Amino acid sequence: MTFRKKIAAQMYSVRKEFEADPEATLKELKRIGFTAIQVDGMRGHSVEKISQLVKKYDFEIAGMHIKHDRFMTDLDGIVEECYAFGCKTIYDKYIDDEEQHTEGYRRTKAKLIEAVAKLAPLGFRIGVHNPEYDYNNQIDGRKVLDYLTDPVNGYGVYSEPDTYWMTIAGENPLESFKKYSGRAPVVHLKDYRSGFELADIKQNLAEVGEGEVDIEGIVRWGEANKVEYYCVEQDYSRIGIFKSLEIGFNNLLEIGERIQRETSQ
Questions:
Q1: Which in 182, 192, 230, 264 has the greatest CB count within 10 A?
Q2: Residue 115 maps to which CATH number?
C-alpha cells in the first residue's frame, strides 16, 4: 500500500465543521489529499446520510470512535453502525470521567472483553484510545491502558496509542509505542511544543511534524509493526483547522514516502 493511503483524518479535528456541513468538510479533506477518515460520531446527522457521503467521496474508514457509554449499553447498535460504514475496527473513545476509578476500569475491561468474545469471530477488532490519564492512573499495579489491553483467556483489546496524550503524561511516545507492537493497527499522531502549561492544549498542540514528537521514529516503528493507518488529529488550531491538517498531512506524507523509498531499496 502506498503511504498516502495510510494517512487518515481523525474527524474529531473537524467536529464543528462536520456538524455544520458534512459534505463540504469531506470535500475539503479530499482536496487536502486524505483518502481515509476515522469516524468520530455523526454530529447530529443520520448514519445513512454520512455513510452515503463517505461513499460519494470514496473514503476508506480507518476505524470508528464510539462513545464509552455505548460500549456499556448498545453493542448491537454499534455493530449496525459499523456495517453501514463497512468497517470492523472500533474503538472506545475514552473512559467517561465518572468511570475513572478502579471499579469503572474493571467494568470497562469486562465489557470490552465481552465485545471481543462476541465480535471477533465475525472479524471485528475492538480497541481503546487513550487520554493522558490512562498513563497517569493505575490499577493492579498496571497503567490503565496496559491493564485494559492485557489479554484475558486469549481475548485481547487493541491499543490506539496517541502521541500527544502520551507526551502530556510524561511518556516517551516512541518507547511507549513499542509495548504495542502488532497490537496497534491504527495510531493517533498529534504533535507537541514545549514552553507552555501542560493543560494548555491551545498553545502546546502543534501541527504534525512541526513540534517535538519524534514523528519519523514512530512512522519507522509503524512500518515495521503492521500499522495500517496513521490518523492525523488536530484538536485545536491557531491558523485554521484545514490549514493545520494540510500541514500535518504534507509533513507526514513526506516522512512516510521517504521511509518507504529507503526500505524498498
A1: 230
A2: 3.20.20.150
Give residue-wise pLDDT tens across range 222-233. Answer: 999 999 999 999
Domain that holds residue 18: 3-264
Burial 96-124 (b: 16+ CB within 10 A, else e): eeebbeeebbeebbebbbebbeebeeeeb
**What are the tens digits of pLDDT across the range 51-98?**
999 999 999 999 999 999 999 999 999 999 999 999 999 999 999 989
**128/180 Cα distance (integer angstroms):** 12
| Residues 61, 86 contacting (CB under 8 angstroms) | yes
Q: Are 38 and 8 in contact (CB under 8 A)?
A: yes
- Find the angle CA(233)-CA(234)-CA(235) to the nearest 5 degrees: 110
User: What are the distances in angstroms from CA 57 to CA 45, 53, 80, 85?
Assistant: 17, 6, 22, 13
Q: Which residues, other chains included, contact 107 with Cβ-Cβ below 8 Å and sequence gap of 6+?
A: 72, 99
Distance CA 220, CA 256 (A): 8
Buried residues in 68-90 as b, exposed as e (16+ CB within 10 A): beebbeebeebbebbeebebbbb
Spatial separation of the C-alpha atoms in residues 126 and 115, rounded to whole Å: 7
The conformation of residue 197, written as its DSSP 8-state character, comes to: -
For 149, the grid coordinates are 489491553
Instruction: Write down the number of H helices and E strands in the chain.
Output: 13, 12
263 burial via Cβ count (<10 Å: 0-12, 13-18, 19+): exposed
Cell of 119: 465480535
Note if the pTM is more than 0.85: yes
| Beta strand extents in the chain (DSSP E only) | 7-10, 36-39, 60-66, 89-92, 125-129, 138-139, 142-143, 158-160, 186-189, 191-192, 205-206, 229-232
